[in-house]
């Protein structure tokens, strides 16, 4: 195994809590069936990822309202109340990041699926986003995970060798895409589990 010299972090779900349930809680919809329909057919994860890849939020919203006019309020709230979906930092993972950052033999980068229109909100709220040696935001680059071009852009821009990098993401699909490019990866499930796995890579004591 090559020595790991680069850590690549996902952000949402790893270092930052983000959850639409903070807006669309149990009281938002008239029934559980309505909530299920909304997320499976209206504002789906695939639809949101399209905006993560650079599609304008306002345009996406109006198009979706045209397709589902009876769901207008819920559709408008998806980005209109997006800041309410943004939770707190996942403190234990941030502490792990800080420990890794203090290791002079490691470089740390962020590779995130995030709209360029909403990412500035996170930048203002979370100081630790300035700690990275570099970052790629999907909305700024007009591509996203799990497309290989997004990973390759990070590797090329920051002169990272895949064999010496370790990628951390809470989405197994994204983890598998990184592994297909020769990047060792950890499927993030909790700070405690992350700490255990980093010890296996001899990156934490």
Structure explained in plain terms:
Helices cover 46% and strands 15% of the residues. The chain contains 11 helices and 7 strands. The two termini are 18 Å apart.
Proportion of residues in helical segments = 40-55%
CATH architecture of the largest domain: 3-Layer(aba) Sandwich
Number of helices: 11
Number of domains: 2
Tell me about the largest β-sheet.
5 strands, parallel
CATH homologous superfamily label of the largest domain? HAD superfamily/HAD-like
Share of residues in strands: 5-15%
| Gross geometry | elongated
Using only C-alpha atoms, the radius of gyration works out to: 18 Å
Task: State mean pLDDT (0 to 100 scale).
Answer: 97
CATH topology of the largest domain: Rossmann fold
**SSE ordering:** EEHHHHHEHEHEHHEHEH
What's the assembly state of these chains?
single chain
Distance between the termini: 18 Å
Model regions low in confidence, pLDDT < 50 over at least 5 residues = none
The structure class reads alpha/beta
Q: Work out the number of β strands.
A: 7
CATH class of the largest domain: Alpha Beta
The neighbouring-strand order within the major sheet is: 5-4-1-6-7
């Amino acid at each position: 195994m090559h020595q790991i010299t680069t850590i690549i972090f996902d952000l949402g779900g790893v270092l930052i809590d983000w959850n639409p349930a903070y807006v669309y809680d149990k009281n938002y919809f008239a029934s559980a069936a309505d909530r299920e329909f909304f997320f499976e057919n209206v504002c789906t994860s695939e639809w949101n990822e399209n905006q993560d890849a650079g599609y304008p939020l306002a345009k996406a919203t109006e198009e979706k309202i045209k397709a589902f006019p009876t769901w207008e309020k819920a559709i408008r709230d998806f980005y209109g109340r997006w800041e309410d979906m943004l939770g707190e930092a996942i403190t234990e993972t941030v502490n792990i990041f800080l420990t890794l950052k203090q290791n002079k033999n490691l470089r740390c980068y962020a590779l995130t699926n995030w709209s360029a229109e909403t990412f500035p909100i996170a930048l203002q709220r979370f100081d630790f986003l300035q700690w990275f040696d570099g970052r790629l935001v999907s909305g700024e680059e007009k591509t996203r995970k799990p497309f290989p071009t997004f990973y390759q852009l990070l590797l090329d821009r920051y002169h990272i060798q895949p064999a010496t990098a370790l990628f951390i993401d809470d989405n197994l699909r994204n983890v598998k895409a990184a592994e297909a490019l020769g990047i060792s990866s950890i499927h993030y499930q909790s700070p405690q589990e992350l700490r255990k796995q980093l010890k296996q890579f001899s990156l934490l004591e």
